[in-house]
Amino acid sequence: MFEKILIANRGEIALRILRAAKELGVATVAVHSTADADAMHVKLADESVCIGPPSATDSYLNIPALISACEITGADAVHPGYGFLSENARFAEVLEDHNIAFIGPKPEHIRIMGDKIEAKKTARRLGIPCVPGSDGGITDDDEAMRVANDIGYPVLVKAAAGGGGRGMKVARTQADLSNALSSARQEAKSAFGDDAVYLEKYLEKPRHIEIQVIGDGRGNAVHLGERDCSLQRRHQKVWEEGPSPALNLEQREKIGMTVAKAMQDLKYLGVGTVEFLYENDEFYFIEMNTRIQVEHPVTEMITGIDLVNEQIKVAAGGILPFTQADIKIDGHAIECRVNAEHPTNFRPSPGLITYFHPPGGLGVRVDSAVYQGYRIPPHYDSLVGKLIVHGRNRTECLMRLRRSLDEFVVDGIDTTLPLFRTLVRNQDVLNGDYDIHWLENFLKDSAVSE
Predict the structure, then answer these.
(1) Pick the catalytic residue: 291, 337, 365, 421?
(2) Catalytic: 227?
(3) Which of 36, 308, 331, 417 has the smallest set of CB atoms within 10 Å of its CB?
(4) 75 burial class (0-12, 13-18, 19+ CB within 10 angstroms)?
């Protein structure tokens, strides 16, 4: 086991990692920008190091500063959390060059899955079903038109190095395709420094289903069920739940075992999530995230497995302590991402939290690094915290979520709590009848009020 872990992140995920490390008896190092000097994980860590000014580029993305922090404190491992450098293969390699362990996958797996074109090729090779589309990057408009005519309109133009909805454009007809290509390339170049794009068949009303996996790098790998992340705004997940209300047991087991077998063949190390679009009883691979996910607590609540704890242990050379037969899904869980944003126009709302009262009770979990008197800085993402509830079934879970949302109080800033109080009373949501476009259509058609 590691002796000291440096947590190369901030906010609730930094606190989540710190807690897991402490429960394993491992010393912790918090790094922080000057804007995060009063952060909760900084207060609770065994040691802390300031690594730069508020800008993420000069702090949390500053690889030399992070290496220096490791050397100063004697940290023998780094946990990157999610975001920032969590899927940066070069960072993992630099750590390895300095004899510091990266708590995450092998660099080659990060690199493969970070390139959307290579990821699709690898998925096909491993037997994972994919969305019909181009075999690789599209080099010119004529090639794009040939591919689009072959798979049929509408098509989706996607950045090869993309994520989070950037560099993604829909072309419903041949007349739309040229503009979609140009726009996607320009956006991809600006966001990722790479203008390579590829084409996929555009699915009209799919759900977003993701399979949680963990492996020990030796060929032992399991899946831990699925999460339904279809309630999204601008391709960003808002509400996640598991199991999916859209799948039956046979579908769940089939796609789960397909993914688990692929991870075994890949000799995947650590946690990861294989993401699919699901429509008309078919799964289509879209990407793999080679890191812990924001919504990982959903899986923890329905399996009883501490994913961060297991992630640390396999990174330290441990063998996976369970087989697929040991994984049991118990009940239902839902996570709501509570952001510091206005609930109707989603304008960011950083500032001082004057009162903070999280809900509690059986089956209720709040992952948050904020506290009363904490000032949310304007420099980073707007996540205040995650409310996760568990019930014996989906109906009980929804009722517990409704009660918990009504208890949750955050004063001094705007939050998206009113949105969730509306969603948990909406009949489509209660029925589980939604797709990836549902939330944006709902927001266009109705006003959310406190």
Answers:
(1) 291
(2) no
(3) 331
(4) buried
